[in-house]
Amino acid sequence: MAPYCVLAARLRHALNGGIRRYHVASVLCQRAKVAMSHFEPNEYINYEKLEKNINIVRKRLDRPLTLSEKIVYGHLDDPAKQEIERGKTYLRLRPDRVAMQDATAQMAMLQFISSGLPKVAVPSTIHCDHLIEAQSGGEKDLRRAKDINQEVYNFLSTAGAKYGVGFWKPGSGIIHQIILENYSYPGVMLIGTDSHTPNGGGLGGICIGVGGADAVDVMAGIPWELKCPKVIGVKLTGKLSGWSSPKDVILKVAGILTVKGGTGAIIEYHGPGVDSISCTGMATICNMGAEIGATTSVFPYNTRMKKYLGKTGRADIAALADEFQQYLVPDAGCQYDQVIEINLSELKPHINGPFTPDLAHPVSDVGAVAEKEGWPVDIRVGLIGSCTNSSYEDMGRSAAVAKQALAHGLKCKSKFTITPGSEQIRATIERDGYAQILRDVGGLILANACGPCIGQWDRKDIKKGEKNTIVTSYNRNFTGRNDANPETHAFVTSPEIVTALSIAGTLKFNPETDFLTGADGKKFKLEAPDADELPRLDFDPGQDTYQYPPKDGSGQHVDVSPTSQRLQLLEPFDKWDGKDLEDMLILIKVKGKCTTDHISAAGPWLKFRGHLDNISNNLLIGAINIENGKANSVRNALTQEFGPVPDTARYYKKMGVKWAVIGDENYGEGSSREHAALEPRHLGGRVIITKSFARIHETNLKKQGLLPLTFADPADYNKIHPVDKLSIVGLADFAPGKPLKCIIKHPNGSQETIMLNHTFNESQIEWFQAGSALNRMKELQQKSS
């Protein structure tokens, strides 16, 4: 029977519409149809299909299922026949929807245009949040961004209208906050072209970050492939209190698992401690799961989610979820591949960094560690907000700290910025006074956008190369990520800790124990902040920033100028010629960490995300060359001169020479940006050989027709030198699970052979043979027609 609130609505409709036209019994017998969102009233949540698929799989596997398995297997294309083995088999899935941020949507929509399809097959949205640079404040920065990026915004708007994609205009907010407020729900499977898409797990959904080519598959109505994830259980006991926050949970987990410990797994939180965390707090934890390499993270449906759904105008979804709750929580007795237990009552405030998000310190210790390591202890800037921590509760807790400082006549010693997560959050914190408190303490309210978190920060208070410290409530702190300065020591922590440290101006301050001196000379201690998790009144939606796609967009014109420096239509990559890859040069042998920021930098390069040739000028400019210990300086094997990486790659391409990249551990960690795969392919690369890959990047490389391979023996990394030539042989017999042979030719004429592993399945091998996944899609379309 339909849930009460839905039944009540149907009864009211029956009575208001005339009892003669409706019989009450017939209304009661209808199963509730609840829309996935307010913006798509004719697209319904299909819990019945989820239920049916789960029951088929549970019967086949004959064991209790984790929540992750329920939602993932509940979206199988063929649950009766799909081979299922955690960590081994590839699943064919049918996600419910797609979300794209503007920096990655450009390439995703260009690929979708290349597919020749008339309209997306699933509900999809574009969110303008990445192209707004933080300079002088929200309104001015937004106006400037609209002017500078007009061509790109127009392309995304018209492409969305033509192909049936909803468009969130610049100023709407950060993609993940918009998804949480409007699109995520318990049991949904959503893929997004941003690595922090797992934020939606805070509402009980399986939300996974992918590259644009994966999004194109789903928008084209093709089953999406994902290696069957393992499941890491994090059991939470106790209760958060005092200065400890949801952010500290994931900072602690990152310290335990490291940046690659979650690779190939879903992190599933469970246990009695879950109920002490707000819905937006759960989203924070899931969001930063990307920093440990996890496929995604998820929490079980509970009353905190129900409360959030109600406050965001989706009580009907909560009521339907109540009816299907047994499918939105783990089965009793389910088995995890690994279990971590955290007692929230004992959890201390944490701060992680610098230069990597898994270097965890209790806040009480970081000052002493910084002095010992020679890190600057004076804090130049504190920054709160981002997709990780910009909820109403986050802003309220920060304002509670700021209010105490103001009561004692203090303001921030450090510069202080605030990024609201969405227009709804901005409008609501303005109405409720939080924004003014944060301004009064010295804060600058930035636009509802990603801003400094992704390097969109026109920072003026330091010179490049100047050693300094910043503290943020963001998720990543890779070298140079926020401000392009490799000497900026960035630490990530909770918004309230950022606020407290910004008031004190130093890493040596511990708000749990240390005192501040007020304007009157008297010492005082900050009390642990307390704030409402949701506004007492309804959220203020602020300005209407959503563009609905028309019912028929076939007449819409999408313009891409052939002379544009921002946008470029894509040309198909060349097909594999059927031969082994012989005598490849090594473009670069990378030393140490190589994230997608190193491979395809963001910041000023974001403006070229829709122009493959132009953005390829940043290829691997941040990676450290093992030959000379420098960034963006590699030997040209044909001229023996050292030069920039992109220039060298272009020279090899011009000369018709194929090349390879040699990488270290967890190559490609970080962002989902597929430009880090498109660029090497565009400039003539064919193979990337590493000790290990981050999940999204490995898939992106496969999608673009490259060969991501790993050393069967990681020690073989040391056998390859930048001056060597490489041949990958045996490609005619390329098959799933079958290693490939690599012949290393040294300059002295000697050679040796090593073995390389891969994770290709049969369809992914077809991508390689066709030249890319998009080429293969077109081949299949031609065959079917």
Automatic annotation (TrEMBL):
- PROSITE patterns documented for this protein: ACONITASE_1, ACONITASE_2
Q: Which domain of life is it from?
A: Eukaryota
Q: Where is the Aconitase/3-isopropylmalate dehydratase large subunit alpha/beta/alpha domain?
A: 69-505
The pathway where this protein functions is: Carbohydrate metabolism; tricarboxylic acid cycle; isocitrate from oxaloacetate: step 2/2
Record key words, sorted: 4Fe-4S, Iron, Iron-sulfur, Lyase, Metal-binding, Mitochondrion, Transit peptide, Tricarboxylic acid cycle
Region ranges (Disordered):
533-560
Judged by the first EC level, this protein's enzyme class is lyase
Q: What is its EC number?
A: 4.2.1.3
What is catalyzed by this enzyme?
citrate = D-threo-isocitrate
What molecular functions are annotated in GO for this chain?
4 iron, 4 sulfur cluster binding; aconitate hydratase activity; iron ion binding
Q: Which cofactor does it need?
A: [4Fe-4S] cluster
Query: What remark does the entry make about the cofactor?
Result: Binds 1 [4Fe-4S] cluster per subunit.
Q: Which CDD domains does UniProt cross-reference here?
A: AcnA_Mitochon_Swivel, AcnA_Mitochondrial
For biological process, the GO terms are: citrate metabolic process; tricarboxylic acid cycle
List residues of the Aconitase A/isopropylmalate dehydratase small subunit swivel domain: 586-713
Q: Where is the chain membrane-spanning?
A: none
The text of the family note is:
Belongs to the aconitase/IPM isomerase family.
The name this protein carries in UniProt is: Aconitate hydratase, mitochondrial
